[in-house]
Each structure stands twice: as structure tokens, then as C-alpha cells.
């Protein structure tokens, strides 16, 4: 246990920056619901990590795949991280909608959810 002034920090309980980023992405994707103004209902508990929702036929669902990470120092001495992720998604398609249109709506929902992340 490390102590910094009034703050205590357990090294065993600290999550890596990468883990915090992935958790934030998953949490943001879980906000995709019609109640939140999206076209689809994904919601809490339907975003998976490193599991194929298409192969398992989990509907509706998203899966976040971590593919690659790079780290570089910036001019101020800080670290710039880039994490390449793949998002796999599956939703039901009703008879009155074209699958491509539904896919485009879902893509828009994912983009909107990730763009709207607040710092």
C-alpha cells in the first residue's frame, strides 16, 4: 500500500490505462438504447469483450476486440496511446427493413456512442 498525503493507493487494485480505456469503451457502448436516442437497443450487459457474438448468436449484442496498441512519447514527455479495436455487432432485422439499412443504423449508433464520450 502506497500513501500520498491523504490518499492511499493499493498497487494490487490499480487497473492499467489500457484496461481503463477498454472498460470506458464498453460502458459507453452499453448506453446504446432507444431511450437514449439511438436507433437500436443494446444496453447494459450486452457488450462483450473478446467473444464472438455472431458465432454465439447473441442478439442484440456488441463485442469489443483489442487488436493492437502503440505508445509514443509526446513533446511534453507524456504518453500518447493508440489502441486499435474491432467492434462486432448483431441485431435482429424486421421483415419491413433492409439488412443494409439496419446495419448502417447500428454503425451510426456505435459511432455516436464513441464520439460522445465525455472526458
Would you identify the CATH architecture? 2-Layer Sandwich
Sheet of most strands: 3 strands, mixed
User: What would the average pLDDT be, to the nearest integer?
Assistant: 88
Shape descriptor reads elongated
The ordered H/E elements are EEHEEEH
> Under the CATH scheme, which class?
Alpha Beta
Number of domains: 1
Number of strands: 5
Percent of sequence in beta strands: 25-35%
Count of alpha and pi helical runs: 2
Specify the structural class: alpha+beta
Helix-residue proportion: 25-40%
Write down the Rg: 18 Å
Distance between the termini: 28 Å
Give me the CATH fold name: STM4215-like
* Strand line-up of the largest beta sheet: 3-4-5
Stretches where pLDDT is under 50 for at least 5 consecutive residues are 1-5
Structure explained in plain terms:
This protein has helices at about 15-30, 100-115, and strands spanning about 1-5, 5-10, 45-50, 60-75, 80-90. By secondary structure, it is an alpha+beta fold. It has one domain: STM4215-like (2-Layer Sandwich), CATH 3.30.2000. The strands form two sheets. The chain has a three-stranded mixed β-sheet with strand order 3-4-5, with helices on one face. A two-stranded antiparallel ribbon has the order 1-2. The protein is elongated and about 55 Å long. The two termini are about 30 Å apart. Mean pLDDT is about 90; it is low at about 1-5.
Amino acid at each position: 500500500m502506497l500513501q500520498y498525503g491523504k490518499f492511499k493507493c493499493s498497487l494490487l487494485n490499480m487497473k492499467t490505462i489500457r484496461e481503463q480505456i477498454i472498460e470506458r469503451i464498453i460502458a459507453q457502448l452499453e448506453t446504446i438504447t432507444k431511450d437514449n436516442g439511438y436507433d437500436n437497443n443494446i444496453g447494459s450487459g450486452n457488450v462483450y469483450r473478446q467473444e464472438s457474438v455472431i458465432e454465439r448468436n447473441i442478439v442484440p449484442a456488441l463485442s469489443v476486440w483489442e487488436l493492437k496498441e502503440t505508445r509514443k512519447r509526446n513533446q511534453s514527455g507524456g504518453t500518447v496511446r493508440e489502441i486499435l479495436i474491432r467492434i462486432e455487432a448483431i441485431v435482429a432485422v424486421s421483415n419491413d427493413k433492409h439488412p443494409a439499412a439496419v446495419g448502417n443504423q447500428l454503425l451510426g449508433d456505435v459511432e455516436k456512442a464513441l464520439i460522445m464520450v465525455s472526458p
